[in-house]
Amino acid sequence: MAVFTDRERATMVAIAEATLPAGQIFPGANAATVARVEDFLDDLPGPAQTAYRGLVRLFDGLSWLHHRRGLASVPAADRVAMLERWRDAGMARRSALRGLMSPLKMAHFGDPSFFKEVGCVYSFGGGAGSRSEPRPAWFRDRVHDAAALGGDVAVEVDVVVIGTGAGGAVTARELAEAGVAVVMLEEGNYVDRSEFNGRPLPMQKKLYRNGGVTFSIGNVPIPIPLGMNVGGSTTVNSGTCYRAPDRILAHWQHDLGLTELTPERMAPYFERVEGVLGVAPVRPEFLGGCARVVARGAAALGYKHAPLRRNAPDCDGKGVCCFGCPTDAKRSTNVSYVPMALKAGAELFTGVRAQRVIIEGGRAVGVVGRARGGRTVTVRARAVVVACGTLLTPTFLMRNGLGDASGQLGRNLSIHPATGAIAVMDERVASWDGVPQGYSIEEFADDGLLFEGTSLPLDLSVSLMPQIGPALVELAEGFDRVASFGVMVADKSRGRVRLVRDQPLITYNLGDADLARLKRGVDILARVFFAAGARRVMLPVHGFNEVRSEADLTRLRDARLRPHDLELSAFHPLGTARMGTDPRSSVVDADHQIHDTPGLYVVDGAAVPSSLGVNPQVTIMALATRAADKLAARLS
């Protein structure tokens, strides 16, 4: 289906040809590139399509303003000059240009011939042409595609769980194995490895909410991509497994009154989760080139560094964790806890969007959901577990007028703001050959800075680079010599989720303390890369996009940065329905039950009381294990 008008398509082709020209080995972008962008946009929600088309028309309008003719009629050099001015402008213009160019770059550099030229693996066999493996009996009998239902469905169980990510799937498995009758409701589909081909654009459409286009607004826009599939964001995360640090548990115990959440009492829950996930350090042979470079630089500077612990005991370093593991080595909940729950007797309805909590006598007694085909799924239960994720759980509760007696629902949002750096090396790095996030620098963890590996496929990596024109093509053609690494902060800043016109609105302002730590983080990353022998380092900092020497870093240290001078992302939203003992300052109690609604529980990242400073999935899972134990005891 056509997304662009003829004029918009011509404008896009003009932009593509000018900003993505032919290089030494790669051909230039053309109309076929634009067709791939249009195909990506086709399945996105209408507002996302409208926003993108608005950007296209904006740049065409600017051409009329400056050149008295449409962009397609302007010489290529003038097109690039106009776009370059926006690349060096303020936050709004830079964000607009990034929004326009990112899908275009992915579509262009996602050509399999490009991958072959630099030695990358393009696809791992998944996709429309792949054959699904035979479904086991527990899948055939207990997984129900709601879109294929012959009519409305009504069932009655002990517990209904909304969501199948780190919180929901763990809760369902633990309850089911304790003999509790459980139904899981999931808005996404059950996608298996036969469809995981490692390609960013199709996998974003298939596995991510809104194609990965979720972000916060504030003094700097921050993308916060969310999974939408059976497995939720665990299907598309890096697999990194940290326990909540003891200092965080001490804060919860002493400052928030959560006296049961001590390291000693949480240890058995962490151990149960790690046993299911097969958590272990990344094997040396799969660490990859980025880890080699960073380990060398960190060692030269005397920093503590080590392989990360992950939930992928049989990983063979395919390098596409964020697009679904093509070998099922990563034990995300779609291949671990959900199947375990189903084998224990739980039922799963996919393609169901939970709409209403059934309240009787002030108590939650079920959920009504609607399938994409319009059918209604009603589940009556003795308890309702909401596990929609940190950004969607509060809006679901808001729609139902539940959980906000304290005024804290949707508040206290932490996200672990993150950024990274890219180094151009003289050696072959081959970043794609290994675990994308397999190594860490933990020297500064107590200061709220955690450095973790981050390597992405060619097309996605290039889409994050601010360059356009020949400079970008040169980087892409030398992709085998590029190393990358990331840093995130244990944020003190807090955001909020609101319900606006039935949609979540996420606001987050980066505070001065977190800005200073991020600035320090990119400085440390650059020094690590230079110590490892980098020729130049590209930073996501306006005015310092490329540094080549210690003198450049001195200028960065002396510069007064503003939040919108940084290019940020975030992957760990927490805290919007936080746990606490005081109903005046928290949403759920120490057992995860909403203070003012018996029978209604929140068991996901929303209930985590504060920022962790480490990847949160194991903490969410351990808390869910504990919550399930308590709920099972209450129902017995």
Describe the structure using short key phrases.
3 domains, 6-stranded parallel beta sheet, 636 residues, Cholesterol Oxidase, domain 2, alpha/beta, 7-stranded antiparallel beta sheet, FAD/NAD(P)-binding domain
Summarize the main sheet.
7 strands, antiparallel
Coarse structural class: alpha/beta
Strand order of the largest sheet: 8-16-17-18-15-21-22
CATH arch. level architecture of the largest domain: 3-Layer(bba) Sandwich
Q: Mind telling me the CATH class of the largest domain?
A: Alpha Beta
Helicity level: 25-40%
Number of helices: 19
Amino- and carboxy-terminal Cα gap? 54 Å
- The whole-angstrom Rg is 24 Å
**The CATH topology of the largest domain, please?**
FAD/NAD(P)-binding domain
Mean pLDDT reading: 94
CATH homolog superfamily of the largest domain: FAD/NAD(P)-binding domain
Strand content: 15-25%
Say how many strands there are.
Answer: 23
Task: Note down, in words, how this protein is organized.
54% of the residues are buried. The mean pLDDT is 94. The protein is built from 19 helices and 23 strands. α2 (31-42) packs across α5 (91-109). The protein has 3 domains: 6-109, no CATH class; 154-239 and 242-278 and 322-407 and 576-636, FAD/NAD(P)-binding domain (3-Layer(bba) Sandwich), CATH 3.50.50.60; 280-310 and 418-490 and 511-567, 2-Layer Sandwich (Cholesterol Oxidase, domain 2). The protein is of the alpha/beta class and 636 residues long. β3, α8 (168-177) and β4 form a beta-alpha-beta unit. The strands form 6 sheets. A 7-stranded antiparallel β-sheet has the order 8-16-17-18-15-21-22. A 6-stranded parallel β-sheet has the order 1-10-4-3-14-23. The protein has a 4-stranded mixed β-sheet with strand order 2-13-12-11, with no helix packed on it.
